[in-house]
């Protein structure tokens, strides 16, 4: 089952425009061979929808932002946040019911995206000037009543791995391991890595961000096939417990600051057992966060999921099925059930091949939103790697 998550990660990279058509075809074939809907018990319609789906503020989970609006947001790269495109995206929020921006403060390579003099950050991090004046940006967001969320990419960190190989995974010759895309990861067992990322989060809070969204909270894809050949420090804990331990620790460190903590996780994670290889357990992670954001892009589900031949072409059924599974997975944790705020698709998955995808526009985005509403979920985030969002959508 861990191989499935390796494939999903490659798909995630592909839709950002990195992968080739040949790679995409291979991914789709492998997905179909690894898992089919019949191999996962599907709940009937309405299962897992008891209580208050997607809501916090109960006895077990105290929302540090109780006055926050229902979040409907978009993703911004640091280049967009620090460049001319910001004005266009602010106007989108001004003119619609969208009210939040998820902005990279530590990006997919590991760069801190703005100048900083914080010694805790400079010890391990490398600042860039993508956002030249972070304080001016925060002021502008406040003027436009934007709910600001800081995206912090955690264990995928090529910058830190190269500057501090002891915090990463090494080959026996001492060189730092990297994946096929030349990306490296740092070691989730290392508390120094935990503290560094939490320091980034704490500075983000001081800057005015109301929520910290941790991404890449996991080991590298397919790690179970690499671990024995790599050199790295570890404890007696399982990979799942190491990753969940970070999330729990981060929550404890950030809770006194009155900031929400959220984590991005594969949408498939709600429908399959824990991914021991990469150390992700949907339920264990969800217990320690205020918000869980499964990435439920219809394009990332293979033929037959939720009774749909081509999930990308039926966004309503796909999102509805994924949310039923999500509730079923999280309902057993009762009062610790976090806000469910999925990432949904606002991009066209042309890599799926002719006849397997549709061009995403107003109808497809609204279908996903309706599916969320029909399953008791009224918060969501829109993903488009280029930050170009469909006009005219009723949010």
UniProtKB/TrEMBL annotation:
Alphabetic keyword roster: Hydrolase
Pfam family for this entry, one: DUF4015
Coiled coil regions, renumbered to chain: none
Gene3D superfamilies in UniProt: Glycosidases
InterPro entries assigned to the protein according to its UniProt record, in alphabetical order: DUF4015 (IPR025275), GH (IPR017853)
Record bears the keyword Hydrolase: yes
A GO molecular function held by the record: hydrolase activity
Highest taxon above the source species: Bacteria
Start and end residues of each DUF4015 domain: 73-389
Region entry Disordered, spans: 40-64
Name this polypeptide is given: Glycoside hydrolase
């Amino acid at each position: 089952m861990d191989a499935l998550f390796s494939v999903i990660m490659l798909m995630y990279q592909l839709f950002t425009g990195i992968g080739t058509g040949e790679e995409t075809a291979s991914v789709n074939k492998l997905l179909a061979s690894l898992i089919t809907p019949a191999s996962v018990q599907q709940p009937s319609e309405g299962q897992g929808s008891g209580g208050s789906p997607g809501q916090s503020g109960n006895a077990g989970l105290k929302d540090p932002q109780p006055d926050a609006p229902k979040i409907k947001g978009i993703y911004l790269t640091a280049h967009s946040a620090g460049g001319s495109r910001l004005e266009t995206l602010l106007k989108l929020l001004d003119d619609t019911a969208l009210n939040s921006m998820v902005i990279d403060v530590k990006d997919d390579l590991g760069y801190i995206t703005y100048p900083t003099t914080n010694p805790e950050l400079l010890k391990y991090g490398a600042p860039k000037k993508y956002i030249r004046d972070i304080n001016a940006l925060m002021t502008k967001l406040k003027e436009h009543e934007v709910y600001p969320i800081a995206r912090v990419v955690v264990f995928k960190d090529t910058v830190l791995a190269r500057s501090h190989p002891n915090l990463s995974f090494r080959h026996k010759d001492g060189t730092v391991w990297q994946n096929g895309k030349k990306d490296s990861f740092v070691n989730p067992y290392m508390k120094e890595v935990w503290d560094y990322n939490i320091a980034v989060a704490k500075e983000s809070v001081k800057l005015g961000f109301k929520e910290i969204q941790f991404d890449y909270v996991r080991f590298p894809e397919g790690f179970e096939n690499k671990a024995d050949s790599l050199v790295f420090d570890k404890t007696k804990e399982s990979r799942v417990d190491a990753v969940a331990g970070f999330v729990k620790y981060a929550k404890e460190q950030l809770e006194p600051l009155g900031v929400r903590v959220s984590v991005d996780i594969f949408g498939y994670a709600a429908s399959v057992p824990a991914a021991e290889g990469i150390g992700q357990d949907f339920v264990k992670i969800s217990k320690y966060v205020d918000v869980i954001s499964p990435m439920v892009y219809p394009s990332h589900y293979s033929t037959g999921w939720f009774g749909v031949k081509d999930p990308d072409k039926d966004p309503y059924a796909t999102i509805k099925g994924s949310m039923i599974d999500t509730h079923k997975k999280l309902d057993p944790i009762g009062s610790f059930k976090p806000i469910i705020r999925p990432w949904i698709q606002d991009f066209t998955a042309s890599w799926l091949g002719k006849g397997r995808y549709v061009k995403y526009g107003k109808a497809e985005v609204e279908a996903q939103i309706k599916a969320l509403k029909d399953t008791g979920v009224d918060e969501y985030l829109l993903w488009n790697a280029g930050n170009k969002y469909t006009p005219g959508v009723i949010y």
